[in-house]
Each structure stands twice: as structure tokens, then as C-alpha cells.
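Recap quiz, item 2
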Amino acid sequence: MNLSRRQIMILLPAAAIAWKHVLAGTPESSPNYKMTEHWWSMLIDIPKCIGCGNCVRACQAENDVPDGYFRTWVERYHVTDWNMTNPEVISPDGGKEGFPSTADDSGKYFFVPKMCNHCADSPCTQVCPVGATFISPDGVVLVDQKYCLGCAYCVQACPYGCRYIHPEKRVADKCTLCYHRITQGLTTACCEACPTGARQLVDLKNPNDPIHEFLKTHAVQVLKPQMATGAKVFYNELDGSVR
Amino acid sequence: MAADSRRVARGLDGCECAASHRLVIPLTYKRIFIGRNLGSIGDLDHTGRAAAASRERRDAEGAMNIFKDAGHLFRFAGLFVLAFLIFLVVRNFVVPKSFGQYGHYRGAAIGEIAAHPIKFAGHQACEACHSDVLDKKKTGKHANVNCEACHGPLASHANDPGSVTPVKPDTAVICARCHTASAAKPKKFPQVDPAAHSSGVPCETCHQPHSPAIDAGGTK
């Protein structure tokens, strides 16, 4: 078979395009779970939280979160009536082992569980230089740890401080909303372990989800709405002093 | 200052080399407007005769001259195409297969994250076998507390009940985590000071954890 130089020049790009299709293969199919039918988020009911730290421990056990790092944590706010804009916030070891006693009885105390807000317009995914973090088609902000460089731009970009660099893997790590659980019909580890129902997994695309009625009838907020991140973790009766 | 400006003015007006200026300036213009076909600068004089002759020569040789030295351009274009082909081939190997499947990321990562092993079996798995505990729980205040909230992650037990036996939680620790009194907890939530409440007597002596109220037949 004799090919002229001209023929080779024509064939090479064609072969490259064909090879690309061979490599791409067929898209992965998951028969029981359709990503396009869900839009996950979470509801946190502040008046129900007792600060037991079950969610923090459950998250660390479920997701192998290293000690001293947190995908979710609980903060205790102490707001005195004359100092609304400067609350005292503590979170000893993420609230994992509970909180010290409330010695000062003035003002009000309450717990605020924090976690990734799985923003619909997330700043963290926008700054990733390599496309290692992304919003999945079902609304969960995930990290592709095989692709992550560990540059920590996303750690800086998150206004909620929800990301960290894994001390051993040296890549970005964060709450996955227990993606391995919710895609199998289970709730997240933190919701499973919460004794009072203060945390509830929410599927905004499910018309039967009680969240729709809840959002209509309760004073629900998201954290830092002024940052226009499209945060999807809804806080019921969130105090104005929470940052 | 005044002396300087006077010297500059005199230099422009009465410059001794004015004649050479007149020669140089037209030559420069010729080189710009007539261009490379002029040949060597030696052909020029300030009358422009050589330039005119060169222009006639160029017209005579016609358009053939344009392609006379174009060979190196084709070689350069060939290199460019070759480099582009190499880029395409390398890109095929370097960019992961599923990149761009759903967006600017590796689509296969979603499946990899979803493949993470489960540690908390979920209360449905517990209730499938332990229906007796479920019945007892339903009667009490802990009806909505999931099993693994107290018993810890037990997917290993749910997957292999024979070989993995859960450890019974220590009520002194487990109960106190939730029920130790604190001003930060909701007022309606039952809270005690553990030391004052039981003086070290284990909680399950009086309260059965699955149905904790004493008057509800909760005692063992």
C-alpha cells in the first residue's frame, strides 16, 4: 500500500478523531439513579440542634476525615444583648466532644452546625485551574481527587471555610454530601446520626419533599446571602449574628 | 534657559549642513515608499531616476516574483500542521476519556466518589432484623433517634451480622452527650446535670435507652 504524502496528511487527522471516539467509550450508566432527577441540599433546623457533636463524629467515621479537619462542625454562639455584631463563637475540636458549660448566663446561646453549602454558583469551583472540582448534575459540589493539584485556590475561595487540604493526600477535600450514600437512597451520615432531626437531607427536585412546605412556612436563611453564592444549606431560624 | 532655546532656534534656521539634510530626507522617503525593489542604496540619488527605472523593471518581471522565494513559507506551514497533529495526538492520550462528559471536569470522578464504602448502614437496615427494638422505640421519646446515632457506624455488622458483633455503648457517655444541661440547648429538651442527677449510677439502671421514660414501663 503506497500512500502519498498528501494522502497521509489527510488521513492523520481523520485517524486522530476516530481514535478519540474509541477512547471516549460509552458514558457510565447507573440504572437505579438518575442524576438529572435530583437537586440535593440540606435543611438545618437551629432550634433543634443540641450540640451533641454526633454529626461531626459520624462524618469523620463515614468519610475517613483526618483528626483536626472537618467536613462539618458545630459552632456555639454566645450573643450578649448589647453586642449583637460581635458574638463569641467557640467550636472546640469542631464540637466533636461537646462543649464546655455555659458559665455566663447573660445573653443567648445557640448551636450552628456548619458544612459545605453546596452552592449553585460556587466560588470554589470557579477558581479551580484544572477542572478538578465541579458541581455535579445533581447539585453536589465534589472534588476529583485524582485530578486535583492541591493548589488550594478553592480553599481560599470558599467564603464558608468548608474546604481543607488533606494532610496525607495533599489534595482538596470537602463534604461530598455523602454522595456515595445519597446515590443509593440513603441519607447522609450526619443526618443519620442526628438524634433530634436538626439536619435533614433535601431533594429540591422531588415534588414530595417536605422542604417545599417548610420553606414556605418558616423563616429560612442561607449563610452570607450577600455573596450570591447560591448557597443551598437552608438554616431555619438563623440568628442575625451568625456569620 | 533663554540661551538654550536661542541656540536651538539658530540650529534649525541656519544649520550649516542644510544641504545634506535636503539630500537625506528625500532618500528616506524613497526607501519607505518604493521599498525593497529599489535594490541597493547606491542606486539612489536625490532625483529619483534610479527609483523610476527600478519600478519599470519590477512591472516587467510581473507577478512571478511574488512566489519566487515562497518555498520556505510552505515548509513553515507544513511544520505548523505537523505540530498541530502532534498536539491532537498527545491531547488524546493526556486528557482523560470522560473529561467534558458533563462539564469541564472528569465525568468518571462522579462514579468514583459514589463508590466510596458505606460505614453507616442506615436505620432501615437495622430495622429489617431488629423489629423488636423498633417496636419498643416507637413507644418512647427516642422513636425518631436512629439506631446508629447511639450505636455508631455498623454497616460492617449489617453486611455480616455473624462475624461482626456491635459493642454495647456506655450509657454514661452516650446519654450525657445529649442530655447534659446547657444554656445553649433548646429549653424543651430534657437536660440534667449528670453528677447531681444520678450520683454515678448508670443511666440504664432506671432508663431503658430504647424507651427512656420510667413511667412508660421503661425499666428493665
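Residues 123-216 of chain B form one domain.
Chain B touches chain A through 49 residues (CB under 8 Å).
End of item.
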